[in-house]
UniProtKB/TrEMBL annotation:
TM stretches of this protein: none
Enzyme Commission code(s) on record: 2.1.1.297
Protein name: peptide chain release factor N(5)-glutamine methyltransferase
GO molecular function annotations of the record: nucleic acid binding; peptide chain release factor N(5)-glutamine methyltransferase activity
InterPro entries: DNA_methylase_N6_adenine_CS, HemK-like, N5-glutamine_MTase, PrmC_N, SAM-dependent_MTases_sf, Small_mtfrase_dom
The Methyltransferase small domain, residue ranges: 103-197
Residues covered by the Release factor glutamine methyltransferase N-terminal domain: 6-74
Record bears the keyword S-adenosyl-L-methionine: yes
Organism name: freshwater metagenome
Length: 293
């Protein structure tokens, strides 16, 4: 039998040596995963048996190699959800949760698009928290689509009254062709596209494990963002909301630069502005579709 407290100290040290900033938290979460208990139950759990120690060591070794914690446990928390994730799908980030709050402030129920839906974190949060939204989760990656469909099935019963969610396994530029009835009818477009400029420094977890196509983009990170903006001019109804998550260098709240300027340059949007994330970095830009003259 091995004492849990000392085991956590040892694993925390290994994680720190591997460059993992959240060493103690990760050590506890992985031990809880290996033991099949919650993190809060660790300190009242009995000493760990040999077979449990072996299971823990296996996941610790994976984390030392900088495999994302969420890939190892298979679960990523996001707002009120616990989403299934794994290789081939982007791990949902805490800052992305703010997109739903922006929708609550500015939008009314109607048709909503989540472009590049990945695990479904944005689309499912919208459908399970707000009533009256017909949500389409658009994803062209086969690997990510597998997790998206799993998570939709998992949370289907929690979808709010009058809301629905549908996965579309297509590229976002195909949307007007595949769903022509949505053109000019969409009330909300949400997108967390690949926006990191190629060549940027990223964590080992991102560099070696997460899908590059969901992280990096050409044209200083704007390649997919520009497609999203162009699509929004076609799909949004007058008064419809677009919210895009982006790199902190791509949009400053209230400043005529980066993504805000790209929205303004279309001549199609009004009330354009930015929102900072929880660390006060410019993370989101939004605009309202104006009426065509």
């Amino acid at each position: 039998m091995t004492a849990i407290r000392q085991l956590l100290v040892d694993v925390e040290r290994r994680f720190l040596n591997a460059g993992i900033e959240s060493a103690r938290t990760d050590a506890e979460l992985l031990l809880a995963h290996a033991l099949g208990v919650s993190r809060s139950q660790l300190m009242i759990a009995p000493d760990i048996a040999q077979e449990q120690l072996h299971a823990y060591e296996l996941v610790v070794r994976r984390r030392v190699l900088r495999e994302p914690l969420q890939y190892i446990t298979g679960i990523a928390p996001f707002r009120k959800l616990e989403l299934e994730v794994g290789p081939g799908v982007l791990v949902p980030r805490p800052e992305t949760e703010l997109m739903i709050d922006i929708v609550k402030r500015f939008s009314v129920p109607g048709i909503a698009l989540d472009l590049g839906a990945g695990s479904g974190c944005i689309a499912l949060s919208l459908a399970t928290e707000l009533a009256g939204f017909e949500v389409y989760a658009v994803e062209n990656s086969i690997d990510a689509l597998r997790y998206l469909n799993k998570n939709i099935t998992k949370y289907q019963k929690l979808v709010q009254l009058g809301s629905s969610i549908t996965a579309l396994g297509i590229d976002l530029v195909e949307l007007p062709i595949v769903k022509p009835e949505l053109v000019g009818q969409v009330q909300v477009i949400l997108a967390n596209p690949p926006y990191v400029p190629i060549g940027s420094d990223v964590s080992a977890e991102v560099k070696y494990f997460e899908p590059a196509a969901a992280v990096f983009a050409q044209s200083n990170g704007y390649a997919v963002i520009e497609k999203v903006i162009e699509l929004a001019t076609i799909m949004l109804a007058p008064g419809g909301l677009i919210v895009i998550e982006h790199h902190e260098s791509q949009g400053l709240a209230g400043v005529n630069g980066g993504l805000i300027e790209k929205l303004r340059a279309t001549g199609k949007f009004v009330e354009i502005n930015g929102v900072d994330d929880l660390t006060n970095r410019p993370r989101f830009s939004y605009g309202i579709r104006g009426a065509d003259s």
